[in-house]
Amino acid sequence: MSARQVVARVLSGVSSLMRRVGIAEGAMAKQPLFDMFKIIEGVYIGGVHMFKDTDWEMHPDGDEALTLITGEIDVVLRVDSETRIVQLRAGESCVVPKGVWHRQIVQRPGMLLFHTYGDTTQHRPFKESEETA
User: Fold this and answer.
1) 3, 8, 12, 75: most buried by Cβ count inside 10 Å?
2) What is the C-alpha to C-alpha distance for residues 89 and 42, in angstroms, rounded to an integer?
3) Which segments of the chain have a pLDDT < 50?
């Protein structure tokens, strides 16, 4: 079974469970909040519907793995005073190193899976005056 088939099966199961417990799919918050996620041995695992750019975040306790299932996003990494952009397209992944400030710019809405270690994520707002490239 391909990764896309596994994700489709999981999402189908989540939708079914939500219907059984009386939660309308549209009632759950979309990105930047998570639809459903799990914590497995200190790692937060979940999926996000990406339809708008995000603010900055940083994970001081461990790396974050991102896999884009559908859509197109640019992951902007701030390392010291340098900015690096990783273009993610459907089926591609990247790792955001521990302690690196980053944000996502949505080029085409889609679904993003994440694996984030720890619960100490820090956030700060993106300011329009900031350069991203």
Assistant:
1) 75
2) 28
3) 14, 17-34, 132-133
**Could you give the angle at the alpha carbon of 37 between the alpha carbons of 34 and 40, nearest 5°?**
145
- How far apart are the C-alpha atoms of 31 and 16, rounded to whole Å? 21
Q: What is the pTM of this model?
A: 0.70
Two tokens, residue 68: 């884009």
pLDDT digits (tens, 9 = 90+) for 67-94: 999 999 999 999 888 999 999 999 999 9
Q: How far apart are CA 6 and CA 93, in angstroms?
A: 16
Strand order in the sheet with 43-50: 37-40, 43-50, 110-117, 64-68, 93-96
